[in-house]
Design brief:
Dna Ligase, domain 1; 3 domains; six-stranded antiparallel sheet; alpha+beta
């Protein structure tokens, strides 16, 4: 760290109460080490612990680095808390976070912006669901997802209509709102985005999971997936992936960083699946790998995100300053 770079007190908010607590703790540890490497004063705070709000108030950091995944982390709730405490924080604001976390609502926004995304049916617990109608609209093979979970928790591929009831039951274990989406066969890719007013897209990364899809184990167990940069899809398609990632970032009002997950179907059509506003920052995570391919090492990436959080802007209801 050079003398010109200001040393900051950074609170790394980690742990939490979601199903992704262990992943969050891992992310928090690695972000802490990275920020300490560039010279920042880092305090770790577990939002799953009693009294963490008082700890935030006592610590009074210059900026909060949110390393929480899933509910009470990515969904706008902790962002709203930090707004009330008048603490700047890394990443998107309340509304953008909530929209991106809710896979059904984000689908509505993608459609409104003309962004291609697989056809879907929204199912609520206790409401009627006609398997025959869904199959007619989506085809026989579908992906069933809890609307408000991350890390592929509760996600099932239903290979035929007969598997839908069990897949819905699994998804309803985690949420009262479920997305049933048309299965698109193709190459799984992801594009990270960094920035505020003029964000940039990182290189398109291809995901090759050992399992049928990029599930929880594929994401977090070393050796269970390969990351290929640049993705093996051709320059024109890579450019389209990056365009869609930037468009989705803007459509949802994201700030600081995001990561768009996409599928490149046979014939080269690109479909937007979802956007993550707090991507994982573990040793096997996608955003750090893509940043590294762009020449941004992990400590520099974390420092850059902290600096972006301190840039002045308007209200963070969509994507603002957090100050």
């Amino acid at each position: 760290m050079t003398e010109e770079v200001q040393k900051l007190r950074v609170a790394v908010l980690m742990g939490g109460r979601s199903a992704e607590r262990e992943v969050s703790l891992n992310t928090g540890q690695q972000v802490t080490r990275a920020l300490e490497t560039v010279g920042h004063d880092v305090v770790q705070i577990d939002s799953g612990a009693e009294g963490f709000i008082g700890e935030l108030e006592t610590t009074r950091p210059d900026v909060v680095f949110i390393c929480l995944h899933g509910r009470f982390g990515e969904d706008g709730t902790v962002q709203g808390l930090l707004e009330l405490l008048e603490l700047p924080y890394v990443g998107s604001g309340v509304l953008a976070s909530a929209l991106a976390m809710d896979k059904v609502m984000s689908k509505h926004f993608f459609a409104n912006e003309g962004l291609p995304t697989p056809a879907y049916v929204h199912v609520r617990r206790g409401a009627g669901f006609d398997i025959e109608d869904a199959t007619h609209l989506l085809g026989p093979k579908t992906v069933v997802k809890p609307a408000n979970e991350g890390s592929a928790i509760g996600v099932t591929i239903a290979h035929d209509p007969g598997e839908l009831p069990a897949a819905l039951e699994e998804a309803f274990r985690f949420d009262d709102s479920v997305l049933v989406e048309r299965f698109i066969s193709g190459v799984e890719v992801t594009v990270g985005v960094i920035g505020n007013e003029e964000p940039i897209a990182l290189p398109t990364l291809e995901i090759v999971p050992e399992h049928e899809f990029y599930d929880y184990e594929s994401k977090y167990v070393p050796g269970m997936s390969r990351h290929i940069i640049p993705a093996r899809v051709g320059e024109t398609i890579r450019a389209e992936c990056e365009r869609l990632a930037l468009a989705a970032h803007h459509a949802l009002g994201c700030r600081g960083m995001s990561r768009a997950d996409l599928i490149v179907a046979e014939g080269g059509r690109v479909e937007l699946l979802e956007v993550n506003t707090i991507p994982g920052m573990t040793s096997t995570s996608l955003l750090p790998d893509a940043a590294r391919a762009a020449g941004i090492e992990f400590p520099e990436l974390c420092d850059r995100l902290v600096r972006l959080a301190l840039e002045p802007a308007g209200s963070r209801s969509g994507a603002g300053s957090g100050r």
